[in-house]
Specification:
Chain A contains 23 helices and five strands. Chain B is an alpha+beta fold and 196 residues long. In chain B, strand 6 and strand 7 form a beta hairpin.
Chain lengths: 529, 196
């Protein structure tokens, strides 16, 4: 029977002779993950002991870590380390722009494409798992924009530097960030920015210009809060992270009348995204800039270690736009996987033939992308309507939609990391040689031998990669179930205690998406560069 | 008697251009270049485009990928039918035009017959610059036009940086002047109130 199952799974793996491809998960791993997913589902339905909310979400303060706690306090409450890191990332960013504009057009030999798409784009999502949204604190887009507008390396800018207008109400949400994410994905996968150092540099420049315009026109950092696709992605995933900025003692914040964290001081900027530390329950908009920890006169703000996923399980309260952003994240991460399958090009070619598209097949790609984005969203809406019916419509449909979106976030996060892991360990090999010749002076394209060597020698062993990918998918599934249970209890604990049927709609959705992600990881994936 | 006045002529011209461009767009593509080594390992890197146009898959290859002024190069074109893989067998016209903003220079490079399934066209450019090489052929009574960008010599990428600096500088100056005026108005108003 086991052999039959393995044989069945093997039949689902696409066999290809096209170019260099990354191998996908083996049937043994897939079967193991499926069995564990089934056990987890049974456990979730049978265990009824989950409380409505965790009574104590306070984590361990990094100030209290033995030996290094005091040093961390000094680092966190002074701006020098942060400014040094920002100077470093801004320097690397300017190098990327210069190399993209003036260096070789060979994507695999230019630091602009190698660093941006292979290393940074993959690693920045992985970083959330360890340091939350810390990337935003050293983001070169914001750093350069701030220096240009404020005209100082640190300290608060004067009132002449910005018009400080309020963001129009229509776009005071993260729909613009979702739109930007869709555009970035289209440029990345459809237009092929990833294979053009010049286009990569132009995109980087354009984002700096947009961040600068936003900072010069709108109050605080509207770009970070409403428009930045990367920041909002890290913000959404940040709820899963095991670390976040929080008050040391909530009572100090409750008694605080001056609210320096929100308003800033003479020297230190106010919170760039309008957050008040005393009432902060979710990290969605925290950019980890450290202004609150530097400005607090009581030194009551610090990094806290907490359980993975506790925030989105118990305390996050997503709005309608944030829920849709999560759906966008899920759809686009799955879409990323699809476009790197060997048969994607064939599908696009056939679609182009049907609709009469020519050349770069951008119309076909756009249509394919729209369909790929709509399918998970429509299926989600159907499942939400089913759930809404089961809870006798005691809650508004929109609220159910928003609350349940959190349970699919871990699926996007885990697949995002699992997918990028392949790129990271198999394609970042050439980074050392590129870093010694960032402009690719006199560089030649990779020979077939070099491509083959990269393909055959990943940074870590294939079996370890498979184990990590399988663990990530399981982790995503487990966390999704945990959130689902907690959110269903919050939504309608009475009905939940009466019948297990209420689990079915979202359990179905979570299972379908997890199995789709697993199926994508099984398939061979075309090397990007 | 005139049929059109000036405005009418312009509208007619615009309409004609749009209508003509529809016909051309039907089988007119701009290839997306990628770089690779040639089939023969001793050759310099080539620039290659694979594209789908009408009923054909077209592969377009230029050697060398980064030609310099005065250096001989060539383009190879392969065209095969999507439905049965048979190569196009006819004549292909290769043209070149200057792709710089204010130039309209264009000339014909040559008309080539198929040679072992490939259409080959040699070239030598005297001046550095951005050019578009166009391959044209006709099949089934319909024109097929494939444009292929080619850079001769080193690029001059000051444009994007210049534009970015200009936009940012203009914005910051505007913001600064606006805010100074606003502050001055507030101060004047305060002074006026104090005097009154």
């Amino acid at each position: 029977m086991l052999d039959n199952m393995l044989h069945f799974i093997n039949n689902l793996i696409y066999q290809t002779n096209e170019g260099m491809v990354h191998p996908g998960l083996t049937a043994e791993w897939v079967l193991t993950v499926l069995v564990l997913m089934l056990l987890m589902s049974v456990w979730m339905i049978s265990a009824r002991s989950t409380s409505l909310s965790r009574t104590n979400l306070t984590g361990l303060s990094v100030y209290n870590i033995p030996l290094i706690g005091d040093n961390l306090r000094k680092i966190i409450t002074t701006p020098f380390v942060l400014v040094t890191l920002r100077l470093f990332t801004a320097g690397v960013f300017l190098l990327v722009i210069a190399a993209g504009l003036f260096g070789t057009p060979l994507a695999e030999k230019n630091i602009a494409t190698m660093l941006t798409w292979t290393l940074w784009w993959s690693a920045v999502v992985v970083s959330v798992f360890f340091v939350g949204s810390a990337w935003c604190a050293i983001c070169p887009w914001d750093a350069i924009a701030s220096w240009l507008v404020r005209r100082r390396l640190w300290k608060r800018g004067n009132e002449l530097s910005s018009l400080n207008l309020k963001v129009p109400k229509l776009i005071r949400n993260i729909w613009p960030a979702l739109g930007m994410f869709v555009i970035l994905t289209w440029l990345e996968l459809g237009y092929g920015v990833t294979t053009s150092p010049y286009a990569t540099a132009l995109l980087a420049l354009l984002i700096v210009v947009l961040a600068t315009i936003s900072l010069a026109v709108f109050e605080r950092k509207a770009f970070c809060r409403y428009f930045c696709a990367v920041g909002r992605t890290l913000g959404a995933y940040g709820g899963i992270a095991p670390i976040a900025l929080r008050p040391v003692d909530p009572n100090v914040c409750a008694d605080c009348k001056t609210m320096e964290c929100y308003k800033g001081t003479e020297d230190i900027e106010p919170c760039p995204t309008h957050l008040l530390m005393g009432s902060l329950t979710q990290n969605t908009y925290c950019t980890s800039c450290g202004s609150c920890s530097q400005s607090c006169p009581h030194q009551n703000v610090n990094w806290q270690l907490r359980n993975i996923g506790d925030e989105i399980t118990y305390s996050s309260r997503p709005h309608w736009d944030e829920a849709w952003f999560i759906m966008g994240l899920l759809s686009l991460t799955i879409f990323h996987g699809f476009t790197m399958m060997p048969y994607w090009e064939g599908w696009m070619s056939e679609l182009a033939f049907v609709i009469g598209d020519s050349g770069r097949l951008l119309m076909s790609f756009s249509l394919g992308m729209a369909i790929a984005m709509l399918v998970p969203a429509l299926l989600y809406m159907v499942c939400i309507s089913w759930l809404h019916f089961l809870i006798h419509k005691t809650e508004p449909w929109r609220r159910v939609f928003s609350a349940m979106a959190l349970s699919v976030l871990p699926l996007a996060f885990s697949y995002h990391i699992a997918h990028n892991l392949s790129h990271l360990v198999r394609e970042s090999q050439g980074f050392f040689s590129v870093s010694t010749n960032p402009f690719g002076v006199d560089a030649l394209p990779l020979s077939m031998h070099e491509v083959h060597m990269r393909h055959m020698n990943p940074l870590i062993n294939d079996e370890i990669i498979f184990a990590l990918q399988a663990t990530l998918i399981l982790f995503g599934f487990w966390l999704a179930l945990k959130i689902l249970k907690a959110r269903l209890l919050q939504l309608d604990g009475v009905v939940l205690n009466r019948s297990w049927v209420i689990f079915l709609p979202m359990l179905f959705y979570i299972s379908v998406i997890s199995m789709s992600n697993l199926w994508l990881l099984m398939q061979p994936m075309i090397m990007r560069m | 008697m005139t049929i059109f006045n000036n405005k009418g002529k312009k509208l007619f011209l615009l309409f004609s251009l749009i209508v003509m461009s529809f016909n051309v767009l039907a089988h007119h593509v701009l290839g997306r270049p990628s770089y690779s080594l040639g089939e023969d390992s001793n050759t310099p890197p080539s620039m290659q485009v694979e594209t789908q146009i009408g009923e054909y898959y077209v592969t377009y290859m230029a050697f060398p990928a980064f030609p310099k002024p005065g250096e001989a190069g060539r383009v190879n074109l392969y065209a095969s039918r999507i439905n049965n893989g048979l190569p196009f067998n006819g004549k292909v016209t290769f043209k070149v035009r200057d792709d710089s903003f204010f130039s309209s220079k264009q000339e014909q490079l040559g008309i080539q017959d198929i040679d072992d399934g490939v259409y080959r066209q040699g070239f030598i450019f005297k001046e550095a610059g951005d050019y578009i090489i166009t391959a044209e052929f006709e099949s089934g009574g319909e024109p097929y036009i494939i444009d292929f960008p080619l850079r001769i010599g080193e690029p001059i990428p000051v444009g994007p940086i210049g534009i970015s600096i200009f936009v940012i500088a203009a914005l910051l100056i505007f913001v600064n002047i606006t805010q100074r005026k606003r502050l001055a108005r507030i101060k004047a108003s305060q002074h006026h109130n104090e005097v009154v």
